[in-house]
Every structure is written in structure tokens, then in C-alpha cells.
Amino acid sequence: MISFTVYGEPVAQGRPRATMIDGHIRMYDPKKSRNFKEYVKLVASEHRPEKLLEGPISLVVKVYKPTLKSFSKKKKASAEAGQLRPTSKPDVDNYAKSIKDALKNVIWKDDSQVVDLHISKWYSETPRVEITIVPLEEQQQTAPERRE
Fold first, then answer.
1. In angstroms, rounded to a whole number, what is the distance separating the alpha carbons of residues 105 and 5?
2. pLDDT class of 140 with cuts at 50, 70, 90
3. What is the pLDDT of residues 1-20, one digit of tens each?
4. 2-137, superfamily in CATH?
5. What is the mean pLDDT of the chain?
């Protein structure tokens, strides 16, 4: 199991941007998304396995967005306790995309190895992303034979 925390405000994967270069369209990440991915890569590299993970992987991501300044003390306490959860954009899948892209070739070989994904959004006075990666054992992967 590999577990680490990326401190700072989480950034979801932004919509790709396009530009024309020599008559060809080139797609690229918005700067904010690109910078966040680089930061996640840097933090993840401190937890890099000796050899990139190759089998199926379970990924758990907890996104802690900053508590809103407009929150009353009561609302802030309820948000910190996990009773009030963010329902505003961006969507959780956009955070997942950003994290998965950043961990490719740092922790695992390819995003397709993630066969189990759990992502959740929370509020916190300490914005961060908590990431847990669990390589699934081949024994778990093998389903019992079916009898007909």
C-alpha cells in the first residue's frame, strides 16, 4: 500500500485548450491543471515504488476543498466534522482524472490498471488531497470457477 498527502488547494482537470501551430491543432492542459499535476508528481515521487506497479490497482482519493469564507462558525464546524459536504463544481471525476494522469509513470504504468476507484469531496481548513494506492493481489483478481 502506498499512501501520501498532497497539501494545497486541489485542482480538477480543466478542459483541454487548443492552439494552431503551423496549420495543425495542438491540444494542451490549462496552466493551473498542468501545475497541479506536476506538484502531485513531485509529492508522489517521494513514495515511488522501486518498480512501477503493473497489476490491477485500487485507488482511494479524498479531496479536501477549502472551507468557504462565507460559512458561519456553525456551518464551518459542521463542514470540518464531515457533516456538510461540497456539492459544487468541479465534479469528483475531474479530480480523479487529474490525479490518475499525474501518477502515470510515477507509481504505475498506465491509468487502465486502476480497476477500483473511490473518490470523495470534503471541506477542510487544511485543503489537501489524500491518496491511497493498493495493488490488488492476483488471488483477489481470480474469480472462483463457475460450475454449470
1. 18
2. low
3. 999 999 999 998 877 777 88
4. Holliday junction resolvase RusA (3.30.1330.70)
5. 88
